[in-house]
Amino acid sequence: MNHAPARPKKSFGQHFLHDRRYIDDIVRAIAPRDGDFLVEIGPGEGALTLPLLAAAGSLTAIELDTDLIPALQARASAVGELAIIHADVLKVDLKALAHRHGVERLRIAGNLPYYISSPILFHCVDHAAAIEDMHFMLQKEVVDRMAAEPGSKVYGRLSVMLQLACKVVPLFEVPPEAFRPPPKVDSAVVRVIPLPPHERHDADPELLHAVVKAAFGQRRKTLGNALRQLLDADAIRRADVDPKARAETLSPGDFVRLAKQLGAR
């Protein structure tokens, strides 16, 4: 049964990848293996779903748009075993999903809706212990922020929180014309690998989040001013950080020490 191409919905931020070259490049980057527990976020029309399914034999897709599901199931039926979870990915417990299927870790992929990409990234980081790796298509600006180093103009909260939990590897760019409809921005594919337990920080996650959010909330202020509701200048110095410095000059490890100082109060 042939299905007409879906009409992309602005409300879901849908841009369907259709260029075979980039689809093949993404599948090669993911390198799916038989037996992998693959999870695709936002499969859309199945451009990535079907080749991933063919390589791994089975795949779980999380799709919010009900209208896309019947055609996707029909296309996948002759390729492999596709399970579709009709849900908002932000409400899916990825750790529970892995546990329910008896696997230690998931491999996650997706062409993420650009308007909600940061919340999805933070959601995945919260479940990092249950994830082997992630391959995402994102707005290039977001990938630049994810991988930014201290001192960069785009280094910020997303950079710090992701790099403390994961290794971020930008892979390649994808032009607007590779999508239907073409987005007004350039896109890029990124590999995100959760750090092994011995490389992860040991600060309280809530305190770390509070420090990073406050520090970058007012970028032009010194840390002494930006963090004054949390830490005074002496406490900042005890973390081996200059209170006169600005957030964008600090390494991710500096924020860990600040969070520990906050926890020691």
From TrEMBL:
EC number: 2.1.1.182
Superkingdom, taxonomy of origin: Bacteria
GO molecular function, one term: 16S rRNA (adenine(1518)-N(6)/adenine(1519)-N(6))-dimethyltransferase activity
Residues in Ribosomal RNA adenine methylase transferase N-terminal domain copies: 22-196
Catalytic activity line of the entry: adenosine(1518)/adenosine(1519) in 16S rRNA + 4 S-adenosyl-L-methionine = N(6)-dimethyladenosine(1518)/N(6)-dimethyladenosine(1519) in 16S rRNA + 4 S-adenosyl-L-homocysteine + 4 H(+)
Subcellular location(s) of the protein: Cytoplasm
Binding site residues for S-adenosyl-L-methionine: H15, L17, G42, E63, D88, N111
InterPro entries, alphabetized: KsgA/Erm, rRNA_Ade_diMease-like_C, rRNA_Ade_Mease_Trfase_CS, rRNA_Ade_methylase_Trfase_N, rRNA_adenine_dimethylase, SAM-dependent_MTases_sf
Keyword rRNA-binding recorded: no
Keyword line: Cytoplasm, Methyltransferase, RNA-binding, rRNA processing, S-adenosyl-L-methionine, Transferase
rRNA processing is among the record's keywords: yes
PROSITE patterns tied to this protein: RRNA_A_DIMETH (PS01131), SAM_RNA_A_N6_MT (PS51689)
PANTHER family, per the entry: DIMETHYLADENOSINE TRANSFERASE (PTHR11727), DIMETHYLADENOSINE TRANSFERASE-RELATED (PTHR11727:SF7)
Annotated family: Belongs to the class I-like SAM-binding methyltransferase superfamily. rRNA adenine N(6)-methyltransferase family. RsmA subfamily.
Function: Specifically dimethylates two adjacent adenosines (A1518 and A1519) in the loop of a conserved hairpin near the 3'-end of 16S rRNA in the 30S particle. May play a critical role in biogenesis of 30S subunits.
Protein name according to UniProt: Ribosomal RNA small subunit methyltransferase A
Record organism: Dyella agri
Gene of this entry: rsmA
